[in-house]
Give the backbone structure.
Amino acid sequence: MDFTVGASGLSQGHGRNEIFSGLQLQIGVGVFGLLGPNGAGKTTLLRTLATVTPPRAGSIEILGKPIESEKDARAARRHIGFLPQDFGYYPSFSVYDFVHYSAWLREVPSKHSREETLRVIRQVGLEGRMKSRMKSLSGGMLRRAGIASALVGSPRLVLLDEPTVGLDPAQRLEFRDLIRSLENVTVILSTHLVEDVAAICNEVIVMSSGSFVFRGTPGRLSSLAPNGGIGDTPMEQGYMSILESHPAGTR
Amino acid sequence: MNQLELAAGPILRTYERLHLSGVYLTTLVLVGSVEWFEVGPDPTITACRSLTIWFGLALLSGRIWGRWLSWILPAATLFPLTYLNVDTNGDARWWDWTGQPASHAPCWGIAALSAFIGLASFFLTPWHWKKLRTKKF
Amino acid sequence: MKLYWIELRRSPLRLWFPLLVGVDLAALFGRSTWWIGEWPQASVQAQIPAFYFAPLLAAAAAWAAGRVDRHNVHAQLDAAAHPRWRSELVQLSATLTYGLGAYAAGVIAAVIVTLPKAGPGFLWPSYIFLGVSLLITYAGIGHLIGHWLRSPFTGPLISGLGGLVLISWMGSPKRLGLFALSGDPFKEISQNALMARALMAMALVIAAVSLRRKSPLSVGRVWNLSAHRGRTLVVGVLLCGSILGLSMAGPVQVARSAPSQPLCTKGTPRICLWPEDRKYLPEAEGMVKRINRLPRRLFTIPSEFQERGLSGPGEPFSGFFILEGSMWNPAATMAGSIMHASWPKENGCTLPLGSRLTPQFRQASADLTAWLTVRIFGGGTPAGIHGGPPNVSMPAMAQLADKPEGEQMDWVKSRMQVVHNTFCS
């Protein structure tokens, strides 16, 4: 089976602090939601899959190629669009400059970079603000600019950490349409917003205390909702019941 | 933190005033004492005058670019004061507040102007400006 | 290139660029303009703004380098396909472009004003490159400091003010030789010294873009740690090597070989100048005329006076140099040379030493030298000259030089009598 990103025995940590260990993962084309409480290790997992930090143990494969060295990591990053949770920007850069800079960081060929930049800016609905400085954008627009920077160059793997923070409900709906419109791409979406996962994800992974405690479709997660469980929707209830059966701090 | 400070109550402003006064007076006393003991009264007065000018410039600089960059305007005076400060006769130019003697009136004028502009830039907040602009004379 | 243009357009220095150009032109023309018309002096003058630009550029580079921390862009840069040094290099290049651009404006201005007056020749590129290497060195240092000090203002403050203190204290030609203050034609930049400074500049740029602190988002691991350590070691060796090379390269300015055909006045005595000082030839010819009006029965006039460097070591007073565009120092040197040639040489007359060096002799000797200086110079003293030999009033000498010739000669004879009596006692 072809998969975009795979991990085997993946471990990550810092000093004596182990964030996760022994993770097995194979993800192909589609949209995957990564749910979990704060401190579960979601951001660290995304950073590891983005090849920003080498794993402490285990292996990663991106598009069939093992990532064993910095050279492999850099080569893989050409195909990875990563939007960190806490992304920064140079305030004096315009939206165009910012996205174009991201295209350069990902080595999008220069003859295509301009049209690519314009395409993704249009895609996130910021073409009217293309020349505006980043510092003049509202929180939601900044997030959309960040999403554009992750999508420029049509990466095969898109890692989005809390992409809908700051977006109003209408913008969140547009974001969902945008993600649905991506073809032949693997999207891993880390979020606290269960309804986003329910709306757009083919599969959900629930992470708690550094382990995967659930993997399946949103429907299956919803089906795990007990009667009278905690949460307003079946999916929330299913999610909370999973977490209750795997309390934080236990593996 | 800047955003929080903008919405702070009067107490922050009180502390800002106290802090600035304290910094200015402490520096004045330290510099003045060392100068007095080392070189005498005339250079001491010149040094205190220079300090006042730089202090005013620092306040203005902080107002324009933010407190972290208060040093920009004082630092900018280094070039004219070290390179352009003497005329073809080798004498200090009239605006060279570090080279002119303590009795030189134009330099005291510069000190007064710098102190005025500096203090105005500190005290005239956006609310004050609005009041001044809408005031009917 | 596209990223370079983005960085250039968005650099905070873009707004400061006109001010930088203004400072450069102020440094060039604001203090004096005597250098106009002499290529080596114009070259040094064009290079002098680097003294102030270098700390400024260091502060600017530190500020620019610190933006990654200020605006928390670590995550994007950590996830880039490009190696980090490329984005650092582009950013540093943009900062340098503004600094070098303002510097170039001054160089061009120096050329424009000097070209009509200086005659054949052009700016001496070695002085210009000395300034360029200083700017690059400081930009590299600033970038390195800005990267490593995470505080938004400490980096620029330390780089800027610290850099200014360092350059003022240690940068002079007699110490680290980071800049030149005088472009006398008998000196030139040592190629070894220039190469050493250029190499140090390059080493600092390499260090600035290669060495960096661990990202604050890092969980403690980096790809290819051994390569990182190796790179750090190589950069360290490069830096140490360049510092060593700098210390071994010798002084930044060295003596220049004399031309085969110096520029000399006609007739005797001859005053010979370096060809680059051709603009002083008319003044030198005036001095020859004034020297020839001195009474030969009282003074022995050497046949030739040479600018420093035109002859090898020999006569102690034979090499004059033109200080800041004034022929005063040459006049004083020629006066000393004439006095030396005019010492009594009869049998029984010897150079007074020890107790024979009376205060009267010293005074008479100093008076005569000062009077000769004023006469050869053409009367008066330059505005910038405030003193003279000990116990000699230059204004009084200037007044004496305006008196009738007879009165002056009586005065000279009385002084010469003291000298003669001291030599021949």
